[in-house]
Design brief:
The termini are far apart. Helix content is 82%, strand content 0%. The protein is mainly alpha-helical. The model has no long low-confidence stretch (mean pLDDT 83). It has one domain: Orthogonal Bundle (ABC transporter involved in vitamin B12 uptake, BtuC). The protein has helices spanning 2-6, 12-37, 41-50, 52-61, 65-83, 91-111, 116-119, 121-125, 133-152, 154-162, 164-169, 174-191, 193-215, 219-244, 248-266, 272-282. The radius of gyration is 19 Å and the shape is globular.
């Protein structure tokens, strides 16, 4: 049993994969709590796909793909905030416009690259086993920046998430906090590229946090449980990837989905069984 547990991590690339997976599992899950509470799942998915132009341009210039992705994500997040500022355009409308435009531009740029099928597919579906030491450092730095910002602005983000009107009355500047949340999402999407890829990053932002929402009643507890679930799913997904020879990012997401389904059915207060028992008791 011990050999079965330790064998995958005798390889250096698996050790880097484990570190990257744990970072992504924790960061996505913590920020995902605000995504779930503020109903921003579509925004996370849109930002994930909107980084394609940055990736394609970085590839064409021979630059770092993560740097290109970060610049594109920040630009798209800024434009979403600008277009929807003060209700000029509804946020979901701005997201839809920029998501489609960025995705189309990315496809156009990628189509000019002859070898994109092998080189850029990793961005779409993740390649945690190919994380380099440099990529790991970039991922760690971005993750620390996101978590530190969440900790520093915890009370403000909490107030703006549950009662933006009160936040405005108290002078907490919810509009500025919305931009901060957009940038945090952009950073988190880039952090997750190597592990789960563009196609699955929205799942890691939403699924562990949604599972924690079913199991807890306070935001602090929700964030702690979500981080633990995200880390556990990342490790379990790596084991499945190693022993079943399947895609690591997809394995992580499927484990997270299985835990969500279990919580949806059996959560103590918000689970399907608990709600049915409560209705019977009331009847």
């Amino acid at each position: 049993m011990i050999h079965w547990l330790t064998e995958p991590f005798t390889f250096e690339f698996m050790q880097r994969a484990l570190a990257a997976s744990l970072i992504v599992g924790v960061v996505c899950s913590v920020l995902g709590c605000f995504v779930v509470l503020r109903a921003m799942a579509f925004l996370g998915d849109a930002l994930a796909h909107a980084i394609l132009p940055g990736v394609a341009i970085a590839y064409l210039l021979g630059a770092n793909l993560l740097a290109g992705a970060l610049i594109a994500a920040v630009l798209v997040a800024s434009f979403i905030g600008l277009f929807s500022r003060k209700g000029a355009v509804k946020e979901d409308t701005a997201i839809g416009i920029l998501f489609a435009a960025a995705l189309a531009l990315g496809v156009v740029l990628i189509s000019t690259v002859r070898s994109y099928a092998t080189d850029l597919t990793h961005i779409l579906f993740g390649n945690v086993l190919g994380v380099s030491p440099g990529d790991l450092w970039v991922t760690a730095i971005l993750a620390v920046a996101v978590l530190a910002t969440v900790m520093l602005l915890y009370k403000e983000l909490l107030l703006a998430s549950f009662d933006p009107v009160l936040a405005h009355t108290l002078g907490r500047r919810p509009e500025l906090l919305r931009f901060v949340m957009l940038f945090l999402l952009a950073f988190t999407v880039v952090v997750s590229l190597q592990t789960v890829g563009v196609g699955l990053v929205a799942a890691m932002l939403v699924t562990p946090a949604a599972t924690a929402y079913l199991l807890t009643r306070r935001l602090a507890a929700m964030m702690a449980v979500a981080a633990a679930l995200g880390a556990a799913c990342s490790v379990a997904g790596l084991y499945l990837s190693y022993y079943l020879n399947v895609a690591s990012g997809a394995a992580v997401v499927l484990v997270a989905t299985a835990l969500f389904l279990a919580a949806f059915v059996a959560a103590p207060h918000r689970g399907l069984l608990a709600r049915r028992l409560a209705r019977r008791g009331a009847a």
